[in-house]
Amino acid sequence: MNIKHILVALSDPGTRASPALDKAAALARKLGADVTLFHSVYSPYVAGEQFYSPDALQKDIEGAVNLRKSQLARTAAGLEKGGVTVRVRVRWDYPVYESIVREVMREGVDLVVAESHRHTRAARVILSNTDWQLMRLCPCPVLFVKTAKPYDRARVLAAVDPLHAHDKPAALDHDLLDTGREFAALFGGKLHAVHAYMVATPFTSGVLMEPVPLPVNVAEQHAASVRRAFDGLLGPYELGRRNVHLRVGGAAEELPAVAEEVDAGLVVMGVVSRSGLKRLFIGSTAERVIDHLKCDVLVLKPKGFKTPVPKRPGNRPVVLPPL
How many angstroms separate the Cα of 187 from the Cα of each of 151, 169, 238, 244? Predict the structure, then answer.
């Protein structure tokens, strides 16, 4: 958790208080980090240069940016009174998630904090929400804030995948556990670990999909291999029996259930960015898990992840000097 620069993505620049702001400030004070309040603004009507002379276009864009900067400045003043070093950034850029990722690359951000809410089934199909795109594309960890519950003495639940069934690199599990342990220690909490897996079926498909029985103990062998991998991964962390949770079932159902049982304040999980047709299917495991969780979620990427978002936007960005 070498976090020195936190970016808070605000959809409403007039917000004076929110769980995302409160938790970003709490982390900044604990870690000695500074905070950037960030808002992305764009209007296709204003950007339609055919309706404007160049001078009028620039004037209206600067007016829109300045208005939002003044709103963010009032919020920043409140955080600064609490001892947090704050800067304000507004970008004329689109789409929002790409604008945030570009700011992360531009300013060397170590953590993005954003509020997240439950999404509709239709939204999960097209995967168009800013938070899910950040989950896929942001090169630094993203903290999705769902509740106002503070992190003091919080239980932190690390969702691991010891058999790497979802194509996650092995090192990512250790990153999740290390980050979860450090986060818990930061706020005087406890680390828990969870893994959910599906039981191997004793049948497989034969000719024309006719079930062919496999050895009756295949499910037992699979369960035993999962247990060995789970225990082997967690051995160095000495969590204790009450803090480890191995569940049979789908991750989208079991992870939120365990989080609720242990009253987790934060779930730490990893994602691997995918492209192509896989994006068109109804949400991946990570997206469905995040949608069903009632607590905050910290999402990590594998080391060496490189975002496909271009550093320069296709539209013209505008950043004015700080007020």
Answer: 6, 28, 19, 20
Q: Domains plus CATH for the chain?
A: 1-115 (3.40.50.12370), 147-309 (3.40.50.12370)
Query: Distance between CA atoms of 110 and 289, rounded to whole angstroms?
Result: 24
> Distance between CA atoms of 278 and 282, rounded to whole angstroms?
9
Rounded to 5°, angle at Cα 90 from 86 and 93:
145
**Which position has the token pair 């700080």?**
322
- Residue pair 206/247 in contact (Cβ under 8 Å)? The answer is no
DSSP-based helix, strand, coil % in the chain, nearest 5: 45, 20, 35
Q: In what order do the strands lie in the sheet with 34-41?
A: 86-92, 34-41, 5-9, 111-115, 142-145, 296-300, 264-270, 155-159, 190-197, 244-248
Summarised one tens digit per residue, pLDDT across range 178-216 is 999 999 999 999 999 999 998 766 555 555 556 655 566
Distance separating alpha carbons of residues 181 and 176, to the nearest angstrom: 8
Q: How many C-beta atoms surround the C-beta of residue 244 within 10 A? A: 18
DSSP annotation of 144 reads E
Here the tokens at position 10 are: 């605000």
| pTM to 2 decimal places | 0.85
Instruction: List, for residues 148-162, the tens digit of each pLDDT value.
Output: 999 999 999 999 999
